[in-house]
Specification:
Blueprint lengths: L1 H16 L4 E9 L12 E6 L3 E4 L8 E12 L7 E11 L5 E4 L18 E7 L3 E2 H7 L5 E10 L2 H62 L5 H21 L6 H21 L1
Parallel strand pairs: 1-9
Antiparallel strand pairs: 2-4, 3-4, 4-7, 4-8, 5-6, 5-9
Helix pairs in contact: 1-4, 1-5, 3-4, 3-5
């Protein structure tokens, strides 16, 4: 989850820089080779944040980096049914629409697209695989457009029936053990949860300040320059908090994170 928050911070920093990209035509296509259900016609691409460099998730210490973006997809038609997964990835392209690099596939957040009511906007955070920082520093300058690749895999009836049967057989024997494990995990994670609450507080403050600062700058207020410097310092402090954070976000914290990320992405799009 640290990676997701690093990506959010990087997107925030990129938004401050004012860079932007646009969607290709068409903006959304079916892209996952393992999918057996096309949901591209049920979605529309609302906006995408500027691409930003973030430290590599595993090898930042040796100069590895990733490119991060957040894409906002609007549900046009409700997708209903039993699915194994939904997936989203983004091709980052040059001005001619030629793909330069593709993000890794997001399955977890993409599941929010299934069963969502028409009109809902789902923010999907994505990152490329790790690469030498110098490679991405050159490539990111050439990114001008983006194409969203989506997919979904619907469950087969036989597999679904088997899964229901297996879960029913195992539920009685495993319930007591699961309760004991959850009690231990709740105790261990209580402090970590407080850490993430503090980080989310800091992240939301930075986003709110960015939005206010962007409005000042748009109105010609020269004080925005000095305030921008202080905002960058705060974002560096937030980055340090992320480096030291432990544990994972709870469901409520993840929901709050998505809400803040959506607010940031929407504001960045309006300022373009």
């Amino acid at each position: 989850m640290n990676l997701m928050m690093f990506a959010a911070l990087a997107v925030f920093m990129a938004a401050c820089s004012g860079s932007s990209i646009e969607f290709t035509n068409p903006a959304i296509i079916q892209g996952n080779s393992s999918s057996n259900y096309d949901i591209s016609g049920d979605l529309s691409a609302e906006s995408i944040t500027p691409p930003a460099l973030i430290p590599g998730a595993e090898y930042a210490s040796i100069g590895q980096k990733q490119i991060a973006v957040t894409v906002n997809l609007k549900v046009e038609n409700k997708v209903e049914g039993e699915f194994n997964w939904a997936s989203v990835e983004v091709e980052l392209c040059d001005e001619n629409g030629t793909c330069l690099v593709t993000t890794q596939t997001n399955y977890d957040t993409a599941e929010g697209l299934i069963g969502a009511e028409p009109g809902k906007i789902v923010a999907i955070s994505l990152q490329t695989k790790e690469e030498d920082g110098s490679v991405y520093e050159d490539l990111i300058k050439r990114i001008k457009k983006a194409r969203v690749l989506v997919g979904a895999r619907i469950k087969e009836e036989s597999k679904l029936s088997s899964l229901i049967s297996e879960n029913s057989d195992d539920s009685d024997s495993s319930t007591s053990e699961e309760v004991e494990d959850e009690e231990v995990e709740d105790t261990d994670n209580s402090t970590d949860s407080e850490d993430w609450d503090s980080i989310l507080d800091s992240y939301e403050r930075c986003v709110d300040k960015y939005i206010a600062l962007a409005k000042k700058a748009a109105g010609g207020d020269v004080s925005a320059i000095s305030e921008y410097t202080r905002l960058l310092e705060e974002s560096q402090e937030l980055s340090e908090k992320l480096s030291n954070a432990k544990g994972s976000l709870s469901s409520s914290q993840l929901s709050r994170y998505n809400r803040i990320a959506l607010k940031m992405a929407s504001a960045a799009q309006q300022m373009q």
